[in-house]
Design goal:
The structure is a homodimer.
Chain A (H helix, E strand, L loop, with lengths): L2 H4 L3 H10 L5 H8 L7 H13 L3 E8 L2 E8 L1 H25 L3
Antiparallel strand pairs in A: 1-2
Chain A binds a DNA duplex (30 and 30 nucleotides) through helix 1, helix 4 and strand 2.
DNA sequence: CATAATACATCGTATCACATAGTATTGTTA
DNA sequence: TAACAATACTATGTGATACGATGTATTATG
């Protein structure tokens, strides 16, 4: 998929990946792989961004001797998903224009 | 609409705006305004980019004493629109994931 | 005569996806 | 047991894109 088209939707995909259950980096990539491929560099950048935007909180837990960071969605994060759904309405309108379905 | 979501679709919108009939900067903005708002700075950046990508050709015509640039879509430009339509299939899949329509 | 509308151009900035590279541990397999 | 894949996270640099701000110049309108 075109890089530009991914912009703005990857964040929301990551939020969806942790919405129902706290998750960690590697698992998020695996879970999303069927829907959309995200490289590690991209994901960890997104996670940091989402943390700064207070859309998730991080909990470092020890798992089998190594530290694993669990990401937990916040209310702001959930709101972000809802906002995206609204924005999608506009995007669909644009797509209808492009395809000529008017 | 979120800036990031616009990335990648604005180009195609501009191509659509000149697809059926050659047009010029100001008219393109007006014609698209119902569907998607594009500022002048953004549009002229896009037009230049599309020209460099050989998706359109430019013809400077004199109109009422002033030079007006008419943009004409090329075969490459038409192909770009078709590619976008294909990519849309993937985007819809991602959206289905986000909304939970699976 | 001032203001809006028309028409195009340039510069700088912020955001984002991503390649590349590095660190470190655990599990597997030849 | 040495090599390698898989797991897990971090840091740096780059290119593409949208867009605000600003500037120029003409025509139409009130």
């Amino acid at each position: 998929m075109d890089t530009q088209l991914r912009k703005g939707i990857l964040d929301v995909c990551v939020l969806m990946a942790i919405k129902n259950e706290d998750s960690y980096g590697y698992k998020i990539i695996k879970d999303l792989s069927d829907v959309i491929k995200i490289s590690e560099s991209t994901l960890y950048t997104i996670l940091k961004r989402l943390e700064e935007g207070e859309m998730l909180i991080v909990r470092s837990t020890e798992y089998e001797g190594r530290i694993r960071k669990y990401y937990h969605i916040t209310q702001v994060g959930i709101q972000r998903i809802e906002e995206f759904k609204k924005e999608w309405g506009e995007i669909k309108k644009v797509y209808a224009f492009i395809t000529g379905d008017k």
